[in-house]
Amino acid sequence: MNRLLTIIVPCFNEQEVLPLFIEAITPVRKELFEKNELNTEVLFVDDGSSDSTLELLRSFHEKDESVRYISFSKNFGKEAGILAGLKNAKGDYAVLMDADLQHPPALLPKMYWELTGSSVSDGTADTDASMSKVLPVNPYDSIAMYRDDRKKEGFFRRHFSSMFFKLMNKLSKLNMVNGATDFRMMNRPMINAIISMPETNRFSKGIFNWVGFNTKWLPFETGERPAGESKWTFGKLISYSFDALLSFSEVPLKICSWLGIIFCLISFITGLVHFIKTLVFGDPVAGFPTLYLMMLLLGGIVLLFLGIMGQYMARIYLEIKQRPVYIIKESDDSSGQ
Ligand code: UDP
Ligand code: MG
User: Fold this and answer.
1) How many angstroms is it from 101 CA to the middle of ligand 2?
2) Pocket around ligand 1 at a 6 A CB cut-off
3) Best substitution site from 100, 160, 221, 238 to test ligand 1's pocket, by max atoms within 8 Å of Cβ?
4) For 4-231+324-331, CATH number?
5) Per-residue pLDDT tens for 180-209?
6) Average of per-residue pLDDT values in the chain
7) Residues within 5 Å of ion ligand 2 by Cβ?
8) 180: left (phi over 0), alpha (psi -120 to 50) or beta
9) Ligand 1: distance of its center to the CA of 65 in Å?
10) Mean pLDDT for the stretch of residues 290-300
């Protein structure tokens, strides 16, 4: 039986680019079928769009049953879209891509080839090629793409993002490639591992890394967005990075404890010095500036640490409530979950 690849596409208000996406993906699907005997399905996840994205998806499905869709009851964010896509994918493989053609569909055959090691069968299938279907000749479970064209981005965003990857790798046990994107193809065991992770606060790039498996990284150049606009503002990016850090690192909490210990030691030593000084020289009334500076400093630090702990507590609270990551309002298939 032919294998199936699910192409997962989260979309939020993408009415302008969706027709272009279908136009671009159709020849690639045909090529995958003809050259690799690979069946494909496209699974759009409408993330609570307020434009006519959903109507478009319905019409795509009517024309072609292998174009499926899920629609959320509101905007739950791209991370939720990724999870819903992976949970509802029927394929032996799945690939995540953006709707805006910034992840070029033309790269799919190459990614599939790298993932499975299956040679392009051009009708001259010999025993070696048929063997490769039985024995996995390639040790990779996932092919992940990283951006190799950061120069195209604005100065601010480029530096912020490379700082983010450096900081994440230092402060957590993850090892992420600078420029890592969500553009990634993976096999069924890896998909199952990802959807088995129950956390509500999902930072997919971290989860992909955390579950392990063998990943090959390939560079790619992002295309220009042909229409519509990016949904990321700088503020959103900062809060995303903060979420990522808190979900995968305990270092901020450790810094709190260490600084707490250091300040206790400093106050103990200063106390001792003052005690001895008073015994030797008497007690001239001095040191008010030191006093209020210390108070301000300690007050500030205590508040800061309470804040950091509060952030972790808020996350624990959210996880404990076990709210669903997304709610499906409509899908092409009523068995969608
Ligand atoms: N997206 C989504 N939900 C959101 C924001 C974005 O599903 O809340 C989708 C969007 O439709 C696109 C992909 O995520 O397919 C990447 O979004 P965008 O192009 O805005 O991000 P950028 O390329 O600027 O990082
Ligand atoms: Mg984009």
Assistant:
1) 8
2) 10-12, 14, 47, 75, 77-78, 81, 98-100, 102, 230-232
3) 100
4) 3.90.550.10
5) 889 999 999 999 999 998 888 888 888 998
6) 84
7) 98, 100, 102
8) beta
9) 25
10) 78
Q: How far is the C-alpha of 214 from the C-alpha of 328, rounded, in Å?
A: 32
Taking alpha carbons only, the member of 85, 103, 90 closest to residue 143 is 103
Give the residue extent of every domain in the chain.
4-231+324-331, 251-321
C-alpha of residue 131 to centroid of ligand 2, in Å? 39
User: In the chain, at which residue ranges do the beta strands (DSSP E only) sit?
Assistant: 3-11, 38-46, 67-72, 93-96, 142-147, 180-187, 215-220, 328-331
Distance (Å, rounded) from C-alpha 7 to C-alpha 44? 8
Q: Which residue, among 103, 79, 84, 82, has the nearest Cα to 28 in the 3D structure?
A: 103
Q: At what angle do helices 288-321 and 234-248 cross, to 10 degrees?
A: 80
Sheet of 142-147: strands edge to edge? 215-220, 142-147, 180-187, 93-96, 3-11, 38-46, 67-72, 328-331
Using the predicted structure, report yes or no on whether residue 122 has a pLDDT greater than 60. no
Give the residue-averaged pLDDT of 25-45. Answer: 93
Atom 8 (ligand 1) nearest CA: 77
Q: Give me the residue label for tokens 């490769």.
A: 132
